[in-house]
Amino acid sequence: MRLLAVAGIVTIAGMLQPMASAADMSATGQAPARDWSGFYLSAGGGFGWWSADQYTDFGGFPAPGPSERTSGSGAFGTIGAGYDWQFAPSWVAGAFADVQFGDIRGTIRAPFEQYSGTTSDRLNIAAGLRLGVLATPDVLI
């Protein structure tokens, strides 16, 4: 819970920064160039759903359509952290990791069988690298 509170404070502080930097404008009215380098925290939440079609084949010949459809839904939250490094005027590289937690539940069934069950997705962990180019000082692609 403390980690979520810290992530919320950092997010709010990040939203307030553009207002504070307006005082840094030069006499020409242009803001100084932004540096994208640094650490960051992120937090969020939402609602997720999934569905999957199962197909059966008969001796190498597929059935004309799905033989069973399974699905599920539920709420989730996410927290993350990362580091970005602006290594040229328009290029940014970074690394990130995040954890998604929640309770997305669903049902599964075996085609043409009487077997069924439930499934749930409670935890997902992701990590990756990013490379982007600045289209404008405030827009990273």
Q: Can you walk me through this structure?
A:
This protein is about 15% helix and about 60% strand. The protein has about 140 residues and is mainly beta. The mean pLDDT is about 80. It has a five-stranded antiparallel beta sheet. A two-stranded antiparallel ribbon has the order 2-3. It has one helix and seven strands, in the order αβββββββ. A hairpin with a 6-residue loop joins strand 5 (about 90-110) and strand 6 (about 115-135). It starts with a helix and ends with a strand. It has one domain.
List the helices and strands and how they pair.
Blueprint: H1 2-21, E1 38-54, E2 57-58, E3 61-62, E4 68-88, E5 91-109, E6 116-136, E7 139-140
Antiparallel strand pairs: 1-4, 2-3, 4-5, 5-6, 6-7
